[in-house]
Structure formats: structure tokens, C-alpha cells
Amino acid sequence: MSELIDQSELQSRAARLVEAARKAGADACDAIAVTGVSLSVDVREGKVEETERAEGDDVTLRVFVGKRTAAVSANRLDDPASLAERAVAMAKVAPEDPYAGLADQDLLVKEFPELELLDTKEMTAEDLTQIALEAEAAGLEVEGVTKSGGAGASWRLAGVVLATSHGFQGSYMSSRYGMSMTAVAGEGTGMERDYDFDSRTYYEDLEAPAEIGRRAGERAVRRLNPNKLSTRTANVIYESRAARSILGHLVGAINGAAIARKTSFLKDRMGEAVFAPGIQVVDDPFKRRGAATRPFDGEGTRAERLDVIEDGVLRHWFLDGASARELGLTPNGRAHRSGSGTSPGATNVTLMPGEKSLEELMAEAGQGLLVTDLIGHGVNGLTGDYSRGAAGFWFENGQIVEAVSEITIAGNLKDMFARLVPGSDLDNRYSAATPSVMIEGMALAGS
């Protein structure tokens, strides 16, 4: 399968751009070359709705002239000299950025770790069609499911090369396989829908399509005939799928760029207890078959596992070169390429599990709301104020009583983090991995 992407050609493109930029007058530069092949199939009611294959190439050259920088991108590299000259001319008239520059040479990756990023199993449209049809059929077999909202399967192969003018050159290839199914239950205005999905680096790790479809169907049926809750304060449990958003808010709040701009509600909390004692959050760029595993970051900087939250205490920001310079800190290999430059971010970030299952959390809470679906993006990153639409199930005596919907959950993330209790059911498949979590005393706005 790897012959679909010629890494040597990617390396040549990046090297030619770097050489051309130096000749054009750049003091420093880097070039990233990315290519990919993807294939996806969508089915509905037993028939293929769409098959899409895409192949793409992109090169981006970033140049530095003193503290001025500019970047240009192209899909083809017919004339590296012309592209480099344009980038240098743009940089010469750009405003100065005191934090611009390549990564320090001492921080560059010298030895590349062996990582399981690439599965050599190539998929055909027929393979993906069969997966999607099997998932859909299993969902439709669930009693109470009235129709399919569609099912899909996908495969992607990508190659990346980064080269810099101070001697770094690194490359890697990665694969990704996925599937999903959406089921609809009920009729007319009483219809409810839900879904299930899976996405993995290695095909052999994917769940069975029939399992994905069955769970999608069962989730849709469970949501039938929802009631509304009256406004109240209640214990809230986020199932692991919904809890990933809570982890995402933490990731955004400890982004080095937000800290440097002073737009994070955690900007003054380094070294302080943000969560309860015992809570651990780790970020691991070398996680086995992880969705965000990589041998180097967007600047070629070496990275290591970070204990971001250690025993409840905040220990690290996510830093790329620019944000680290602005904050007077050392980059920690969390640079992501974004358009003309880099931005800091997480890799494989995990809220480590606790000791109690979801059922035990519900039993401990007694009564409350089990959140299975969130709506909207009502979070203020500066203050931590939180307000999200939600649906799920009301439980009493640790047992689900009824489906509920049209609820708003409100609070402040500082308080929510401090009261968060993780369950034991860690869903470790995605780049943001969490178990279910319980947060006591949330404000619910209902009917």
C-alpha cells in the first residue's frame, strides 16, 4: 500500500524548497510537504449513496527574514525558485514578530522512535461498502428502529515530510480506518436518532460493523418518548462520549497561545490544584496506535509524555516555539502546523480512569442526569462560564427512569473541574480519551 505515496518525492520537494528559499535571501526557512489518499462510501437503505475518492498534495514554505515571516502554499511544485522568491518578498514587507523563528537546534529530534502509525491493509470501495451495509443491517434489526439515517466506512493514508534550513528532515506515514451508523427510531414527530462509530489506526482494531450498527439502533430506541425536566440543581454524569468535550475544554484552557494572550481562565493557575487530588491527565505523543501519535511535531521538536495534571495539580502548558518564547519557557513538542505557521495543541490526551464503573457512579449519585448528547458551544474560555444544551436520561436510585431532552446544563469549568470524579470505563480509541465522569451540583434549566 505504501507505494501509493512516494516519500522520497515528498522529501525531494521539501528539500528543493528549502534550498530555493535560502538562495532567494531567507535567513531561515522550513517546508512541509503533505500528501494523502482517502476513500469513503456512504450507504442508506441498502444502497450506495456516494463513493468518494480523493488524492491531494500540498507544500507550504515558511521563510524568515530577520523577525519578519511569510508563508506560501502550492499544490504543485513546478518552479521552487519562483515560490521561494514570492515568499521572501512577502516576508520583507511583513510586520516584525518578536517571537518568530525556527525551533532551537538543540531541541530538534535526533533519533526517530519506532511507532505503529501505518497499517499496510489497503481498502477498496467494495470492502468499505460491505462494512457499511453490514453496520446498517445490524442497526435496522434492532426492535423499534424504523429507518436508517445512513452508514459509512472510510480509509485514509497520509504522508508528511518536514525539512528545515538548520538541518532537520523527518517524515512519516499514517493510516486511518473508520465506520459509523445512524439509526432512527419511532415515527413522525416522535422520531429520535442516535449513532455509533469507530475509528482506528489499524484495521484489525476496528470493532465489528454489526456491533456498531446494533449499538446505534439501541441508542436511538432508548431515546424514544423523552420528557422535559423542571429547573433544578442535580448531579450530572457525562458518559465517556460526552465527557470528551470536558477534556477538550481543559486542552483549550492550557493552550500556550491562550495563556500568552491571557484569554484562558487557567492563565494564573500553574502549579495549583485545578482538579481534586488523585486526578491525572496525561498527553502522550508516542501512544501505541494513537490517533495523534507522531514522531515529531510541526517544528521538528522532540516531545515526551507530559503529566499535564498530576494529582489534581496543573503542571504544563501546551507550547510551540512562538508561545514558549512569548512566555519565556521551553517548547515541549506540541506544535501543530496550521496554515502559514504553527499553533500549540495536545497530542493523545487522556483523563486517567478512576475505580468506579458507570453503574457505580450512578448508584453513588443516587439520582441525577446521565448526559449522552451535547448541543451547542456555550463555553467562555476567558471566564470558564459553561452552558450547553443536553439530552440523556434521568436516573433515580442508580437506575435509569426515563429519557429526557431539551435541557441546558450551566456552571463554571473551574468549579466543574474541582468536583469532577472519573469512572473506570476509559474509552481509549481517540486523541481525546476519557471515561465517564460525574460532577455534583450542576444547574439544570428545563421546562
TrEMBL record:
State the similarity comment. Belongs to the peptidase U62 family.
Q: Name one GO molecular function term.
A: metallopeptidase activity
Residues in Metalloprotease TldD/E central domain copies: 121-224
Q: Which organism is it from?
A: Roseibium aggregatum
Q: Which residues form the Metalloprotease TldD/E N-terminal domain?
A: 29-91
**GO cellular component terms attached to this protein's record:** cytosol
Descriptive protein name: Peptidase PmbA
For the biological process aspect of GO, one term held by this record is: proteolysis
Residue runs in coiled coils: none
Domain Metalloprotease TldD/E C-terminal: from-to ranges: 232-446
- Specify the superkingdom: Bacteria
User: What residue stretch is flagged as signal peptide?
Assistant: none
Q: Which InterPro entries match?
A: Metalloprtase-TldD/E_C, Metalloprtase-TldD/E_cen_dom, Metalloprtase-TldD/E_N, PmbA, TldD/PmbA_N, TldD/PmbA_sf
